[in-house]
Design brief:
Mean pLDDT: 84
Number of strands: 0
Distance between the termini: 49 Å
Radius of gyration: 25 Å
Structural class: mainly alpha
Order of helices and strands: HHHHHHHH
Low-confidence stretches: none
Largest sheet: none
Strand content: under 5%
Number of helices: 8
Length: 153
């Protein structure tokens, strides 16, 4: 048997998610997928129309790819997020108003979340845990009033 504690799948995923801008990458990838789903023209029509039609498929595909890159390569998140914002804004012109504004807003929001993520932040402490720590700290001085060495006076 091993000495280290065994993690469940949920705890392992939570640890993986905490080390990267998860929500930013996920929103950017979903934005690319949503914009791709709003495209209705077949590939034959797109090739016949020309570069404008190809851009309608190229930009959301790159958005989805950038979202996945943010998830799996978070060290380059600044470049990926700036490129994601530019592609999201470009999808307004090329892809049905950015997937009828839903994909555009998801892409910009996800890119901004990825850009603002800081890798070395302390994990957030829940409100319940802060309350219990404050109560424990409030009761701790009353227990230490017995004497200087912890013995009754």
């Amino acid at each position: 048997m091993t000495d280290r504690p065994r993690w469940g799948a949920r705890a392992a995923f939570r640890g993986w998610r905490a080390r990267r801008p998860f929500w930013g990458g996920l929103l950017l990838a979903l934005a690319g997928g949503e914009i791709l789903l709003t495209e209705k023209a077949s590939l034959k029509v797109v090739m016949h129309i020309g570069m404008q039609g190809v851009a309608g498929y190229l930009l959301p595909t790159l958005m989805a790819l950038l979202g996945l890159l943010i998830l799996f390569n978070p060290t380059q998140r600044l470049f990926y997020s700036i490129t994601g914002v530019l592609l999201s804004l470009g999808s307004w012109v090329t892809s049905n108003l950015g997937g009828f504004f839903i994909g555009l807003l998801l892409g910009v929001t996800g890119s901004c979340l990825a850009f603002g993520w800081l890798p070395d932040q302390e994990p957030r402490v829940s409100r319940r845990r802060r309350r219990t720590q404050a109560k424990a700290a409030a009761h701790a001085p009353a227990a230490g009033a017995e004497g200087a060495e912890g013995l009754p006076a």
